[in-house]
Amino acid sequence: MHPEAGRAVQRTRDALAIRAKLGGPGCQPRFYLIAHACPAIHNCGETAIFRNEAASPQGVPMYHKRLPYYLILSLAVLCIAPAALPQAKGALRAVVQTWTYDPTHNPPLVTAKIVNNSHKDITAFNMSIKETYANGHVYKHEVLEEFLGTIIALKEVQGKANEANFRKYYGDGVLHPGAVWDEKLPVQPELTDYQAVVDVVTYMDGTAESTNDDAFGRIMEERQATVDSQKIAIEIIKSALGDANDPTPAMTAAKKIQDRANVWKVQPHTKLDLNDVYLESIANELKALSSGNGNRRDALQQIVNREEANMSVRSVHAALVKTGGPQ
Q1: Global model pTM greater than 0.85
Q2: Per-domain residue ranges for the chain?
């Protein structure tokens, strides 16, 4: 399995999440970065969810992931706010049109409809959300929907036998102009008001609009951390391949990559500058390769080629150019 194919929560058995340890010992993690898993496909869609408060209204930490598709709910949905939501001055070209609340779902569920009013394909968007409850509690948080992994996955399967199956479930991984995305988010019972505003949008051409500098920075930070981690893995694998006397280059590379991840995980960090889950998943892939049959050096080179191709795509989207919102 590819390093990013198994990073899903709830829906798959291969559940992994990137936990960014920021601020040193004793600090709460600022955010979780979560990716969706695709069946038998590499680099599927990613999601990051950022919570500004440490706990839900009941005092329990809430971190949720997004799925790229959902089962159709058979339950009746109570529409509390069916009309279009007012947009703030200077709103971006992706907006929350409406939201509906289903208190009968377990847990209660809000569906926010986000429409792409731009003329470009969207690769990610961030929402700032304010939930108000009957007991007076107000819960503020942010949710980032990241499509870049799905975009990269599609490039890998194009022209292959599993392309049709991929497109059946994930489309082509972007939010097209005029398209509507249903963002389904669990909430607590007795919700009385829900305010959601899209404050960051990134586009396929490498540009972005933002009225939330912190969220915009997190998107770039996470993408760049994965690019930097890919560079590390590629260099280590190439070095192992370069040693003609090494009988097990895959295992040699796996150990070194795992060591890099282990060292990073035990250190305090003020920013996310490495994707340790990616490194660990690559290491696991190499360990599996080492124990398999066939020409392992050729297989190692194929992994290098794959990661270099993926890195070239991701690098463009890690170097976003802000064209909208406050400059």
Answers
A1: no
A2: 222-318
CA 234 to chain centre: 22
The pLDDT tens digits of the residues spanning 43-57 come to 343 444 443 433 344
Q: What are the phi and psi torsion angles at 289 (to 5°)?
A: -65, -40
DSSP helix/strand/coil, 23: coil
Peptide bond into 107 cis (omega under 30): yes
List b or e across 94-109, with b for residues whose CB sees 16 or more CB atoms inside 10 angstroms.
bbbebbbbbbebeebb
Q: Which amino acid is at 244?
A: A
Residues with Cβ < 8 Å from 170, sequence gap 6 or more? 38, 44, 45, 68, 69, 150, 153, 154
CA of residue 52 relative to chain centroid, distance: 18
- Mean local confidence (pLDDT), 177-184: 96
Lookup: tokens for 19: 């936990």
Strand bridging mode 191-203 / 78-81: unpaired
Quickly tell me which residue has 């919102």 as its tokens.
Answer: 325
Give the DSSP letter string of 242-256: H-TT-S-HHHHHHHH
Q: Evaluate the CA torsion angle 61, 136, 196, 70 in order and state its sign.
A: positive
Q: Work out whether strand 207-210 and strand 321-324 pair parallel, antiparallel, or are unpaired.
A: parallel
How many other C-beta atoms lie within 10 A of the C-beta of residue 180? 12
**From residue 313, how far is each of 7, 47, 216, 318 by CA, in Å?**
20, 18, 19, 9
